[in-house]
Specification:
Fructose-1,6-Bisphosphatase, Chain A, domain 1; 5-stranded mixed beta sheet; D-Maltodextrin-Binding Protein, domain 2; alpha+beta; 9 helices
Length: 265
């Protein structure tokens, strides 16, 4: 197997994200968008499927020995290197014309995400990171900037996003969410990848939600971590495989885990 540097892998992910943006933006707000319902009752559009096919084709051509896990077409291949794709994170927003959605591309090695790209063309923004190489963000027409989480250390001064009340209620943690909201300065329901990128940029201190799949999480993790933050499940576990996510600036992480009922590190 050919050895690739993380810089090589990040360059590939950025290239694939650029190609994906052309597909998704062309279909965004289109009048002939095809929307169907998957067996899990979540919506999928023809844009989701076209974007994932494009990314898969690019990976298969450039990294033929790597495995792939995607939201729309499942898993293929095996081995220590796995690309993890969410073609359009925020499909519900996409199909309603709300610009808060993104393409997520990650590379995990031995189950640990080491490369992440989050591209939000309708917002005109993109974020990326590779382990040990820092995290960066760029708005359309501007130069990239290095990301750094905030230094806020007190929950009473912290701002967070919890995605939606229903998710916390279904997880049996509604009381904990109320306790968190009483403990922080501001709580907002921003949702999807953008909330986690706001943490990486230092504009919010934390974002967390339940009922998450690996392809919802994997690309976010290296970006938050390389910006100096911390990323676990809401129960304190590492990795994108536990079904929930909590990203923070690190300083407020243990306090939030304590309120949720997880295990502080």
């Amino acid at each position: 197997m050919t050895d690739y540097s993380l810089s090589d892998d990040l360059s590939l992910a950025l290239k694939l994200a650029g190609e994906a943006d052309l597909i998704s933006l062309e279909r965004f707000t289109s009048l002939d968008l095809v929307v169907t319902t998957k067996p899990d009752r979540t919506p999928v559009t023809d844009a989701d499927q076209a974007v994932e096919r494009s990314i898969r084709a690019g990976i298969e051509a450039a990294r033929p020995n790597d495995s792939i896990l995607g939201e729309e077409y499942g898993s293929q291949g095996s081995g220590s290197r796995q690309w993890i794709i969410d073609p359009i994170d925020g499909t519900a927003n996409f199909m309603r014309g709300v610009p808060i959605w993104a393409t997520l591309i990650a590379l995990a090695v031995d189950g640990v995400p080491v490369v992440g790209v989050v591209s939000s063309p309708a917002l005109g923004k993109r974020w990326w990171a590779a382990a040990g190489h820092g995290a960066f963000g760029m708005a359309h027409g501007h130069d990239p900037v290095r990301l750094q989480v905030s230094g806020v250390a007190d929950l009473a001064d912290a701002s967070l996003s919890y995605n939606n009340i229903q998710g916390w209620d279904e997880a049996g943690r509604l009381d904990q969410l109320i306790a968190i909201q009483r403990s922080v300065w501001r709580a907002r329901s921003i949702g999807d990848a953008w909330a986690y990128m706001l943490v990486a940029e230092g504009h919010m201190e934390a974002a967390g939600e339940w009922d998450m799949k690996p392809y919802d999480i994997a690309a976010l993790m290296p970006i938050v971590q390389e910006a100096g933050g911390r990323f676990t499940s809401l129960e304190g576990d590492d990795g994108p495989w536990k079904g929930s996510a909590l990203a923070s600036n690190g300083a407020v992480h243990d306090a939030l885990l304590g309120l949720v009922g997880g295990q502080p590190g």
